[in-house]
Amino acid sequence: MDLRRIGEYVQLALTALRLNKLRSALTALGIIIGVASVIVMEAIGNGAALALQQQVAALGTNVVNVLTGSMRIGGRQLGSGGAVPLSEQDLRAIREGVAGVVAISGQLNGSVTAVHGAANWSTQVSGVHAEYFEVRPWPLESGRYFSAAEVAAGARVALIGSSVRRELFADGVDPVGELLRVNNVPLEVIGTLGTRGQAGGSDPDDVIVVPLTTARSRLVGRGAVTVPDVVGNIAVRIADGSDLTAAQQAIASVLRRQRRIAPGSEDNFTIRNFAQLLQARNDQQRTLGYLLATTAAMSLVVGGIGIMNIMLVSVTERTREIGLRMAVGARARDVMAQFLTEAVLLCLCGGLIGLLLGAAVTALVAALAGWTVSIGGGTVAVALLAAGAVGVIFGFVPARRASRLDPIEALRYE
What we know:
By secondary structure, the protein is an alpha+beta fold. It starts with a helix and ends with a helix. Helix 2 runs antiparallel to helix 12 (377-403). A six-stranded mixed barrel has the order 5-6-11-8-10-9. Strands 2-3 form a two-stranded antiparallel ribbon. The protein has helices spanning 3-19, 21-59, 88-97, 132-135, 148-153, 162-168, 212-219, 244-258, 274-317, 319-327, 332-369, 377-403, 407-412; strands spanning 63-68, 72-73, 76-77, 86-87, 101-116, 119-128, 140-143, 157-160, 179-182, 185-193, 207-211, 230-238, 269-273. A hairpin with a 2-residue loop joins strand 9 and strand 10. It has 13 helices and 13 strands.
């Protein structure tokens, strides 16, 4: 089949579609909705996966986190975090007893109110050791990190995230050297942290980082069950190339001895790493992708059935036209190609409109909700190919029916 003949088929198909604009638009509506829904859901899903990957990359895939677990008291199971908190002794035991530890830090978090001048802001405080910035690298925008000596002394110093800086300091003002009152405790700002950006709906830049001893003694209130040298959670960076599973097992073994957990008893701590989190999220994303593909396929099938019905009606309405074309020399395959081209063009036009609609809705969602979204070229290609395939599959029966009409009977049709 030469290009000239294909061009003729396309021209005839476009003419037929223009003569019934409203019907063509309504027929393509199923394809439009199906493709648009694929684009929107895939963009949101890809954006969520991308945001998580960026967050994990920033925190490090070779970082192991130890959290306070649950425990049973008098037959009653306390919730997560209800066990005896992790302490400086636990942290030292991990440092000394686990091979491959590059850096380790506690992280004691709490909610605070920060005041500078006439401005005040409710934010989070994070008390950490000096090694925290080796465990989870966070570049400085200005100033310096606090030292191990300042942590040991409980120095009243702080590093602030970019969101805190924006809320408390005017544009162009360097916060380094300024005093903040955090829960009425004066702290000197010694550095500002670089911007990390939104991650999973939270703002990691909305934080004040202080020496852990300062947070423990002055800023973060203690619960009913605590220890004098509580460190909150413990973050451990393992050397690159090390086996994280083996490191987690070693940490668990050390902590069970340190916390005197009897053989056969449940751990009163929890160990996690971001590589596992990423893998679990990828598994969830894959399952969501299967559900999305099923939903999209159903939408496209419904749209395809609508196209087949309308094309069958079109064949009936144009029976005399088909008979006339055959009478002047058109072959059965020419008639079949003409109607098949109409169905494919209808689906492709619907796919393109659905693509534009999906992109517009995706941009609107990103602007209103502040979510990260991502439309991949593969998604666009698959959506358009699926739309074209629907046109071929569901346009075949009407096209075949048109090609098998008897020219004489078709000319007599009223």
